[in-house]
Structures are given as structure tokens and as C-alpha cells.
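Minutes, project check-in

Agenda point 3 was the complex the collaborators sent over. CS summarized: four entities, 720 residues total, and the question is how they sit relative to each other. Sequences were read into the notes so everyone works from the same version.
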Amino acid sequence: MPVTINEIAKAAGVSVATVSRVLTNNDHPVNEATRQRVLNLANEMGYRPNMMARSLKTDRTLTIGIIVDNIISPFTPTMIRGIQDHLKQAEYFSVVINSDWNPETETRAIHDLISRSIDGIIFVESFLREPNPTLDLANKPYVFVHRIFGNVHRNSVGVDERYGAQLAMDHLIKLGHRRIGFINGPAGWHASDTRYLGYKETLAQNNIPFDPELVVEGDWEVQSGFPAVKHFLGLSARPTALFAANDFMALGAIYALQDEGLSVPGDIAVVGYDDREIASLSRPTITTVRMPCYEMGEASAKLLLGMIANQARSAEPVKVQGKLIVRESCGAEKGKRTADTYHSQTTPRRLLMRKRRPST
Amino acid sequence: MPVTINEIAKAAGVSVATVSRVLTNNDHPVNEATRQRVLNLANEMGYRPNMMARSLKTDRTLTIGIIVDNIISPFTPTMIRGIQDHLKQAEYFSVVINSDWNPETETRAIHDLISRSIDGIIFVESFLREPNPTLDLANKPYVFVHRIFGNVHRNSVGVDERYGAQLAMDHLIKLGHRRIGFINGPAGWHASDTRYLGYKETLAQNNIPFDPELVVEGDWEVQSGFPAVKHFLGLSARPTALFAANDFMALGAIYALQDEGLSVPGDIAVVGYDDREIASLSRPTITTVRMPCYEMGEASAKLLLGMIANQARSAEPVKVQGKLIVRESCGAEKGKRTADTYHSQTTPRRLLMRKRRPST
DNA sequence: GTGAAAGCGCTAACAT
DNA sequence: ATGTTAGCGCTTTCAC
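CS then shared the predicted structure for the full assembly.
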């Protein structure tokens, strides 16, 4: 049913070789008139290349695999979008597979992807964090993008967590705060340890003495903001600001402060980390450091495409930086709501929908 | 480099036909001893079928296309996950493409997917809502799954919004409420109109007179909860409960009520719709009707796979039902926090990560 | 500048 | 029960 180059060749009165040369923009010279004739015919006849046949010959599919932890994870879809947008300009497609952090599933996925002759793989928050012999043997390039573990490998994209923490701390310090409580994530996590580093470094840079009493460890969840606040309020010299290593703990802290009758940011300023949806829905909305998921995705796709193009087996690791999003929980102009107050991060599509809403 | 059936045939001392028959579980009879020999050899030699070659021959790729509005949309990843989980048991893969609600992008995507010989397409929240001649001509089955427009086509999956609204209303009525304010979405939206229907029907079923003063129209956003509450509080006979057509407006209503010094659910009960993440993070957490995204995805994959298997061009439309999630904003036992209070919906993965966290 | 032909790895008639 | 062989649609040497 679908049109093949054979039929076009017949219609144009040339050989399939010529048609192929025209249609693939081969550097082999082709008479300009012939080229046009073929091009027009292909267009008229509605020719669509059969990628299977092409791939069988060239062993390239213009498709890469994206092995993600779980497409439902909060940061993952944005990373995928970053990858896909970058792939698009190179006409690449992507197959998305969930690994659920299961090494067997991941191995299986790798094999299946090789079976499908994909041109490379991006591992997003993978369990796997080391060179993979199967892929190396199949000569398929791959890169890692890791929020959780940072740069895990030469070919990987990570986040500059120290920079992110410094962004938050600088903001607080510029607002005049000198006693800043830090609600960290559990020790041993890359994110906790590096953000902690950023916290301490920024204090040092500003000649503010480090006080271990101002650091508590949470478990990333909202609840852990409560004991943290209890601790801080019990200190003889209370902090005037709080930096939480994620938005959930920041939210818990805000709730706890409000329970004590304290106002945020009036009495105590709060900064979070991640820029989860809640940060723009809570009261007050939360100043935070945005996790640059989209950019990480883009960077990883760029890395992989580069490796594919250069037949390279390795690439320089990339570290992406987040940015500070100032909202009501500290630093926003008094009485003035920030632009996205109470707006979900998905507003753009809603607007789009409204415009195109059916008249019925 | 990779092992082919040719090499296995040579190694086993049989023809490629036999190897193919064994490896594809063809019904053609094969001697059991030979079968075992081939199987072992394939295993030892690390044989992986070349899907490109197989597909070129069979015109089946075990891959479907998923054209989504935008993978970052709040409901979309869950739908994709539902699709993928169902596909998995049939060993199907999926290529995900963002259409951004752009008809040209969608058309382009359809062509590209046909080029790649995919076996079918699932349109998730697509702009396209009608039979597609290109796909029909290519004889590729497709189904729609639409949260926004409901069942748009014979081969489609929608949500039973009336049922969802009834769930919310029944809950409120069982709690003793008889004056229930309804904050609807904008008129003309399928979701608004059908939820409104459910609202009115449930009132009728319970012999509660319908009072147009108890219905206001919001714009789906948090802000629109504020004027709604202002209106309700201005009535001579105030409602004792509010049903908002989505969680964002429910949140805005809660904020507005709290601004007036009223307690939720103490003074006024509130029910939302969708079960967005915010519903389990706000104070109080919000009782709501869960949008059955995962189930919709599953249902659509089931529909499509069925059509592929039966060579069918059409299938019975499916309507999926959501369910009520009771939280603090009404109906939860006094003083007792519901299980997911302050927990994000992504907790499971976090727990998983914690267990497998590196010791360093 | 053009064409003939080999062949990518596999499946499925059609033999035997 | 097994083998031979013709392609699937395309790219790419190699020859002209």
C-alpha cells in the first residue's frame, strides 16, 4: 500500500539508486532536473520512507532509548521533555521505558533497545551508574542524567547542588539574615551533603560563623519540618531565617511556624529547594531554588547526540545550575504578589486550551 | 558484531528456517532435540533478534506511538504509565511524542510514526478528535483517551464525570449537608458541564431542591475560589458545604474561608476534584475525586492491543470511573489524620531509594 | 550523472 | 521435520 522508492523510480524513469540519492540528500552528484522530478513525484505520491528498511541497511534508527526510574516521578517528565525537545531538531525519536529502579528491568530494557537498533540510550535516575559492557560491546553510546547521585560517570549530566544552596543562602544573607537555620535531608544523600557544603561555604564567604546548632536533619518529607522548627524555636538565639533542603520540608516548617503564631516571612523567612508545584500554591508561596530538570534533559540529549555524531565513546561530564525563584516566603516585595502566586506550573497549556476550546 | 540466526544455524548444523521457527515459537513442528540445541546455542551466543529485519518482513514492530499533549501536563505521565504497564505484558514498546496541541505537529507525528511502521497509536488529550484518513489508509488502528472532551470517538476512552460528581455529592449529603455550593469550571467545557449534571442529579436523587444561587462559575484556577466564597458568604442562607469542580478552586475556596475566620471542615466542608498533589499537602488536606488517569491509560492500551490482535478497525468506547479520596476537608474522622496527610504521591519511590541508598 | 546489483537479518512460502 | 529461497525497502559499492 505505501509508496516505495521503487515506484517512484518507475514513475520518474530513473533507477532506485538515483531516487535514494535524492531522497537522502546523498553527496553523490545528481542532475538538478532529475532531482526536482524525483522530489516532486515523491511529494505527489505521498512517499514516506520505510525506516525499518533504512535502518536494516544503515544500522541507524534515529531513535534513542530513555530509561527512566518512573515516568510518574515528579522531576522525570520535565527531564524527558528537555531531552525530546533537543532530539526533535535532529529528527530523533525516543522510546521511554520505566525501570522502577530494578536492575533486572534495566538490563532487560537495554537488551530490548539494542534489539531495536536504537542509536543510544539516556539513563534518567538509573539504578545503573557504571559502564555497561552490553552497550559497550554493541557500540551504542549512552549517558546518565542524575539528580540523585550527581555526576556518576564521565558521560553524565548532574546538578550543581552547591551552587543552588549558595543561591538560596546568598539571597537570605542579602536580605540581612545572619542566623540561618538549615533543615537538611538525611546524611549520606548526595543532595544533602552537597547542599550542606553550599550552606557552609556561603556562611564562610560572608564571614558568618558556622553554628552546628543551626543545622538539623530531616527526611525530605513535610512532617520533618515540624521537629526542625521546634528545635530552632527552642534555641536561646533563634534563627531569623530557615533554609530547607527541599520544598516539602520548607512547607512543614512554614506550617509549624504558623502553628506557633509566627508569620512567614514577617517573623522568620523561609527558602526551599526544588521548586515543586506546591511552592507556588502554598500560603505564602515559597521562595526556592529551581531544579533545572528541563536543562538537564537538554544537556543529556546534546551529549548523546554529540557522541553519536562523532562516534565518540565518551564525553565531558556536564553540571547544570538551577536558579532562584523569589516568592512570598522571603524577598518578595511587601504586599505585592509574585507573578505566579497561586498559579500552577501548568498554566500555559490551560491557556492554550481555553483559546481553542470548542464552541459547543 | 551481533549474533544472527545465520551464525546460530551454522553452529547448530541446521538451516536458518529451523532456527527462525524455534526462536519465534512458530507452530511449524520442530524436533524437540533440535529445538533445545538451538535454544541453548542462542542463549550461549547471546543472540538478540534484530527487530528491524523482523519488522521489515512482518510489518509489525511491537511498538506503538503515544501522541500526548505535553508530557509535562499534570495528568499525562500517569496515563502514559498506565499505557506502558499494560503494553509490557504484550512485550510492546512505546514511542512518546509531544503534540503541544498543534495540529501540524500531530499530523507530522502520525506520518513519522507510520514511517517507523508502528503498530498503532494512542492519542492522549489530542487536538485531533476525528477519524484520521492517513492512519485509516495505512491500516493502523488508533484510539483516543480524553480527559478533556470525554469519549470523542468510537475508539476512545473517557471519564465518567457525572459519576465522579455524584461521588463527591453523595459524600457531602451523607455527612448531612443539604445546602451545597458548587464552584464549577467555565461553561462549555465537557468537564464543567458533566460535573454540573452530576451535581444536579445527586440533589434530585436526594430530594434536595436545586438552587441556582448555589452555583458559581470559576476558571479552574486557585484565584477563582475567592470570589466564589465571597458570593456564598453573602447569601442569606449560606451553604454548609462546597463542592469545587477541581482541587485548585477548592484550595482557593479554603484560603478564602480561612481569611474569613471560618474553619474547614468545622464551619464549612469542602470537596475538590482531580486529586492533584496539592490535595494531600494543603491544610486541611482535601477530600477529592481522583481522576483515574492510570486506569484510563490502561484501558486505552487494552483497547488498542485488542484492535491490533483482531485486525479490528473499531472498538467499543470505554468510560472509566474515578473514586472518592476522603481527607481532612470533610468526612475524615475528627482529630485523626488520614494516612497520606502531608505525603506526596511520590512517596513510594522515595522509600525505595532510601532502602537502596549507597552506604557512602 | 546514472544504473545494476548485492545484501542488511529475518520470515514464510514452497519444496523435500 | 528440515532445507531452499524469495523477498521486505532501502543504501551503497562498483561499473559505466
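Noted in discussion: The first strand of chain A starts at residue 63 and ends at 68.
Follow-up: revisit at the next meeting once the mutant set is ready.
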